[in-house]
Amino acid sequence: MISHGSAPVRPDEGYGRDRAVFVLRREAGCPSQAAHPAVAHDHLVVAFCTGGSAVIEQQGRWSLAEGDIVLIPSGAAHRHLEEKDSELWCLGLCPVCFRAEGGAELLSPLERVRAGAASVVSIPVHRRALLASFYAELQRELDAPTTGTLTAQKSFVSLILTEVARAMASRPEAAGPSSVVNEALSYIESHCTESISLQDVAAAVHRSPGYVTTLVRRSTGRSVQAWIIAGRLAEARRRLRNTDEMIEIIAERVGYADATHFIRLFRRAHGVTPAAWRTGHHGAASPPPVSRRAPRRE
């Protein structure tokens, strides 16, 4: 993980928290801005620069220009340092949900970044307009969900990630050493819906539980257990939105043998029971976006 000085990393639980997938468009014309505090998201981010420039910090300092993609895995501490007339398409994606739907292989570019590969990759000039159209079409599907929207959104997400994977594969690069935090987060992302604990995560990265939980909290602003719960609740929301499974079944499938405990955790996180949440979200591909512009902070 990168160092952000003495300022603590803040877990970002705001925009996109309840969504399995969302797209934002940042238009040119926004003034340059000072550096933001470092944050870490539940979701992963695939941001495509279509104009202007920006400087970010995420496993190093990176300058973005037209045609660049920046990859931010879930839990990766990052911050904006500079922006100048930047135009960005931003895809936010719940990695636990995407894995559950069979998309684990398409997340390989994000796993390579976790393993030490560069966070920024340049898209070939002749592919840039096509990639931008995938973002735009995905946003349209999310803005006005209709018959086939879930299938369409999965297709556009897959096309975006495939373009990124091809661009990354075209450059010879040996990944650097992975960190304990990255390895722990990757394990949690892949196994959180199983019956795992801090001890299992620590064993997977060959460190003591105390060492792992301290390092993860310091690097992401959140404990190992909180990351496990966040992943489970994300998958629970996907099932509540897109299936008719009973609450007890969903609880079991996301790692809770005790449905009452699951309901208590869900209510604590969302302010309503899973059944009430389903009433407001069932069958919706995604809630409508807040704005056509990306928020001032991630």
Topology:
Blueprint: E1 10-12, E2 21-26, E3 39-41, E4 44-57, E5 61-64, E6 68-72, E7 79-93, H1 95-100, H2 108-114, E8 120-122, H3 125-143, H4 149-169, H5 180-191, H6 198-204, H7 209-220, H8 224-242, H9 247-253, H10 259-270, H11 274-281
Parallel strand pairs: 1-3
Antiparallel strand pairs: 2-7, 4-5, 4-6, 4-7, 6-8
Helix pairs in contact: 3-4, 5-7, 5-8, 6-7, 8-11
Helix content: 40-55%
Query: Low-confidence parts lasting 5 or more residues at pLDDT below 50?
Result: 1-6, 285-298
N-to-C series of helices and strands: EEEEEEEHHEHHHHHHHHH
How many β-strand runs? Answer: 8
If you compute it from the alpha carbons, what radius of gyration comes out, rounded to the nearest whole angstrom? 19 Å
The structure class reads: alpha+beta
> What is the overall silhouette?
globular
Strand content of the residues, in percent? Answer: 15-25%
The N- to C-terminal Cα distance equals 18 Å
Mean pLDDT: 85
The major beta sheet can be summarized as: 6 strands, antiparallel
Number of contiguous helices: 11
